[in-house]
């Protein structure tokens, strides 16, 4: 099916009829024609395009302009609620297409421009009214729209071929955001993106139980990539209806918390296991619902911070999102833990792991990040007062340029702070500071598993078996650092069986 869409000159997406007023249709089309964004790009130019979008939707306007803007937002929100966005099998038709147009009643638009228009309006809507009052966020197509944008950008620009893990990455982007009558199609509908090596291909079989389909896809991905990246997707609430093993992702549901490799599975800068590939995860005598891994236990969760992060609210300040002033006293109360705010902030943000572009966190500077965090209120005040120049708009004032750079960094930190949602900070018996899924418990063990880019939280099961709990950020252990008395090596790796 995917080959048909790849060879087609143009794909037409029909969202259905709608009663868009001619004035609104003209305003939406005119806005996109004035924007700098062009097909093949990921985002619009922040300089002029955001101003155009603000005018279109009446951003923080009053009177008649506000009512016009609300009406146009509603037009786009209604588009996002169309069933097309949530159908698993149509994901491939829009992602691999050379070009495409969207037809929505009398509205006709290039596919890439339409998706990025929705993206831009969603962001502004959240900034102005927050999640609770947003027209766009509750729509069925909100998350699928982002998944389509990312997958299409990678496909068009050849990024998906630059790293292994395209299949896992695509499944993750659509995970829980699309619907299928048969839960097996949450895997089978994305086989067009499979990059698994010969011998590890996934063959559709609707006779197999769902748990076997999901376990088979996970196991073959691990074996083909010689990597445990799939564990990033195995985070579960604990009420999975498919009775899955702990290490198998529930592809039918969205992840309850962002993974530490949020842009592309397999493209993280972390390398906790020093890029040592995982051995064949199918051990002798093990069934297909059991995973054989190797590594070393490096510590134990000693204390978990009581401060939680239940949601991410784009309209909040960075201080409200991260709660550093409340968390720092808890961390500093542990004598063995790092006694500086730089490390706490670096751990809270996992070095910017939630960045759209993983290159953003290569030059993480804890000192600069802390300074920007502390200057946050002043930066916001300067922005509201119009003292921060818009991106791509030059200024002769060195002070204004400095404000622009700091505000851009502040905005980036605000964006990547979503990584903390439904996670907790913890301290190990050895004083290491970490961040992990809120379902961790005191006494859980932290291990470095061969083939895993991040340390792994494990919990003892019956007998010699273990259960996977979560991947974690553990400060000082993300790049295979050497620790006196707790060092590990491939030769000294122990075997673990995950159930």
Layout of helices and strands:
Blueprint: H1 2-7, E1 11-16, H2 22-34, H3 49-57, H4 63-80, H5 91-95, E2 100-104, E3 107-110, H6 111-133, H7 142-157, H8 166-174, H9 185-188, H10 210-225, E4 291-304, H11 318-322, H12 324-332, H13 341-348, H14 366-374, H15 376-384, H16 398-416, E5 423-428, E6 433-437, E7 445-449, E8 456-460, E9 465-474, E10 494-498
Parallel strand pairs: 1-2, 9-10
Antiparallel strand pairs: 2-3, 4-5, 4-7, 4-10, 5-6, 6-9, 7-8, 8-9
Helix pairs in contact: 2-3, 3-6, 6-7, 7-8, 12-13, 13-14, 15-16
Protein architecture, described:
This protein is 36% helix and 13% strand. It is built from 16 helices and ten strands. Strands 4, 5, 6, 7, 8, 9 and 10 form a seven-stranded mixed beta sheet that branches. Strands 1-2-3 form a three-stranded mixed beta sheet. 42% of the residues are buried.
In short:
The protein has 499 residues and is of the alpha+beta class. It is 36% helix and 13% strand.
Please, how many helices?
Answer: 16
> How many DSSP E strands?
10
Instruction: Characterize the quaternary organization of these chains.
Output: single chain
- Structural class comes to alpha+beta
Q: List low-pLDDT spans.
A: 358-362
Q: Averaged pLDDT, please?
A: 84
**Major sheet:** 7 strands, mixed
Rounded radius of gyration (Å): 24 Å
* Shape annotation: globular
Distance between the termini: 36 Å
* Helical proportion, percent range: 25-40%
Order of helices and strands: HEHHHHEEHHHHHEHHHHHHEEEEEE
Tell me the β content.
5-15%
